[in-house]
Molybdopterin molybdenumtransferase (Microbulbifer pacificus), 417 residues
Amino acid sequence: MSDACAENGLRSVEAAKQMLIDSIDPITATEIVPLSQACGRVLAEPVLSALDLPPCDNSAMDGYALCGESDSYTLIGKSLAGHPFSGTLEPGQATRITTGAAVPGGADRVQMQENCTLDGDQLTMSRPARPGENIRRRGEDVHTGQSLVPVGSKIKVPHIALLAAAGVVEVTVLRKLKAALLSIGDELKPIGTPASELGDGDVYDSNRIALQAALEQLDVEILDLGCYPDQPESIREAFIHARNNADFVLTSGGVSVGEADYTKTVLQELGEIGFWKLAIKPGKPFAFGRLPNANGETLFFGLPGNPVSAIVTLYQLVVPALEKLRGTSEQYRQPPLQVRARLLNNIRKNPGRTDYQRGFTYRDGDGIQVVKTTGIQGSHILSGFAEANCFVVLPREGSDCDTGDWVTVEPFLAPLK
Ligand code: AMP
Ligand code: MG
């Protein structure tokens, strides 16, 4: 049987992602956080503006506020940011005005200072100002009572700026998710173990800390359960502890079909398997399931142990699932940005699985988006992953690609926030 045939029966990445999204119910518990801690969180309650933005008509320029159209104006005062002019202009009168300062009563336009000449109190200009020119109107950004940020948004830096501009000091967000994180494998040694103490075939447990770093970008609280040997009893114990203390369990290792891979058996015994094995490369042995507990259930994501596979499946499958679980609304759960880029090298690929090769993409001297794969594409090759700034996404049924072909790349654009 060819590889392609062996992989025909595997669930596609898209189908797996859809099944995850469809079967996950978002959490509903909320908390109030100060605006200073709201970035990256998911908004749970509407925030309505208590004022118009801008709060008053104000100047977009440093220059002169003018009343009516005239060949020259008489300067009668000034309006500075924070120090408005208290009077009202009559036709032919002007005040000095700075950016952001309130437009004085009677003024209907602002001329930028670069176009003005002042002689005593007489102001002339190289070209007339149009009515309304350089005036930022009260409420043209936001009206009083308007919703500032839609519920279900992931709060980003511009949201913070907008909320603060409206005087908001705290917001109601969905609570943080809690993950139980563990690694499985007899060969794994905690980082910090001196290299001289590693036995033959031992490796550092690099996945746990990498996954932790990724989850923290989603504001997930981590219950770090550490590292477990390839023994069903200890894995069972870990899962029982994990299911009672977290919204989801994230494991790596022990999920393939080796004789020491017990994740599947224990998951089956304690709960249920949604799927296991996908048409994705790297990362075929990816498991999703559920572990019932006293309050309902805990989701289970079992990542493959190979370090590149673990991170690829986390990005492609677990992150979209967690976005749903943490309450991000559909509009803000768009698939990652993909762009086309021209290949700078050949790529070998067998049909059968969607391949997420690691690549480096950039705009070349002619302005063309190009991409090269970063070194050997083995699922254990972390140096090439670390060098990469994108995935080169090769469709499931595709085969080899040649230099000059156009391929799809998915940039690592702050993917988690
Ligand atoms: P497994 O999924 O258990 O078959 O492991 C596949 C490969 O990933 C093996 O080479 C493991 O040594 C390696 N591996 C498993 N877990 C980890 C981990 N936590 N950190 C680094 N490498 C791992
Ligand atoms: Mg193993």
Observations:
- The first strand starts at residue 30 and ends at 34.
- Residues 30-51+145-174 form a domain with the Molybdopterin biosynthesis moea protein, domain 2 fold (CATH 3.90.105.10).
